[in-house]
Design brief:
148 residues; Serine Threonine Protein Phosphatase 5, Tetratricopeptide repeat; alpha+beta
């Protein structure tokens, strides 16, 4: 469905739920992954002002909360009552996770290009990826030069 109509990923039902809201409420990790790859609005609000993260929090789905957080979900969104994902958290474990994530701040991401040495000593770009970065130490060597 996403391939046939890329805009369908953000369509809503009468309650303003997107497919991402429904997948987060049901704890469907693989469906969430596919929706995010299809450019689902991670911070979409339903008619009550709730985000998919809030539904995962209310259900106590810590894995889904982490998945949405890593994908860039806003932890501070408030519903129409002024509640956040932390306020609607189902249990202590959920609330602790959200408290820790809020203290951490948004995840940093960096895009890396991996370079591999070919058999004849030639370099070629092999793959690009995006990685979550918490601590990063960078050292670089220019080909043909040595460290002093």
């Amino acid at each position: 469905m996403i391939e046939a109509d890329p805009n369908s990923v953000n369509e809503t039902n009468r309650s303003g739920f997107t497919a991402l809201h429904q997948a987060a409420h049901a704890g469907e990790e693989y469906v969430i992954e596919a929706l995010l790859e299809g450019k689902a609005n991670i911070n979409a609000k339903c008619k009550d002002g709730c985000s998919p993260l809030m539904y995962a929090s209310a259900q106590g789905f810590t894995e889904i909360i982490e998945q949405l957080y890593r994908a860039g979900a806003d932890l501070t969104i408030q519903d129409l009552d002024g509640d956040t994902a932390l306020a609607v958290g189902r249990n202590k474990k959920t609330k602790k996770l959200l408290t820790d994530l809020i203290a951490q701040g948004p995840p940093s991401t960096i895009t890396l290009s991996l370079v591999a040495k070919a058999d004849e000593g030639k370099e070629k770009e092999t793959e690009s990826l995006t990685a979550e970065v918490t601590n990063l130490t960078v050292s670089a060597e220019t080909p043909g030069k040595t460290k002093e």
